[in-house]
UniProtKB/TrEMBL annotation:
<protein>
    <submittedName>
        <fullName>Transcriptional regulator</fullName>
    </submittedName>
</protein>
<dbReference type="Pfam" id="PF02082">
    <property type="entry name" value="Rrf2"/>
</dbReference>
<dbReference type="GO" id="GO:0005829">
    <property type="term" value="C:cytosol"/>
</dbReference>
<dbReference type="InterPro" id="IPR036388">
    <property type="entry name" value="WH-like_DNA-bd_sf"/>
</dbReference>
<dbReference type="InterPro" id="IPR036390">
    <property type="entry name" value="WH_DNA-bd_sf"/>
</dbReference>
<dbReference type="GO" id="GO:0003700">
    <property type="term" value="F:DNA-binding transcription factor activity"/>
</dbReference>
<dbReference type="InterPro" id="IPR000944">
    <property type="entry name" value="Tscrpt_reg_Rrf2"/>
</dbReference>
Length: 144
């Protein structure tokens, strides 16, 4: 459903949010290790998140990535998905066909439309705070 970059972007954002609540910045190396992503690929994803004002990059000896604590509850998963993958997840064909719409539907069009709408609802109502707290409390995990 999401690109690998988007999956890593979501995981990185959750990890950064969790650490930001603890008053810690995290390095690209720490992030790539935590989300099990190649460091160069992670760096490109982090740049996209910075450009879209989801995370902040701080340079220097005590630098790294962070999110302002007061912003964490305001950041929705939909913002991360849009920053990395754009809006295609909301309009793409379930079978990957380039020409699939209400007038020319693929065999799964109507069923997939319901799934897409549910996904959109979840992405627009889920914020980083709830996900970071789940990680912090140990009720969910970013890696196995």
């Amino acid at each position: 459903m999401f690109s690998k970059a988007c999956e890593y972007g979501i995981r990185a954002s959750i990890f950064i949010a969790k650490n930001s609540y603890e008053g810690q910045r995290v390095s690209p190396k720490e992030i790539s290790e935590e989300i099990n992503s190649p460091q160069a690929f992670t760096a490109k994803i982090l740049q996209a998140l910075v450009r879209n004002h989801i995370i902040k990059s701080v340079r220097g000896a005590h630098g790294g990535f962070e999110i302002d604590k007061d912003q964490i509850p305001l950041i929705k998963l939909s913002q991360i998905v849009k920053a990395i993958d754009g809006d295609a997840v909301y309009s793409g064909c379930g079978l990957g066909l380039s020409a699939c719409d209400e007038n020319h539907p693929c065999p799964v069009h109507d069923k997939f439309k319901d799934i897409r709408n549910g996904l959109k609802q979840m992405l627009e109502t889920t914020n980083l705070e709830e996900l970071a707290m789940d990680i912090k409390l140990g009720s969910s995990f970013l890696k196995t």
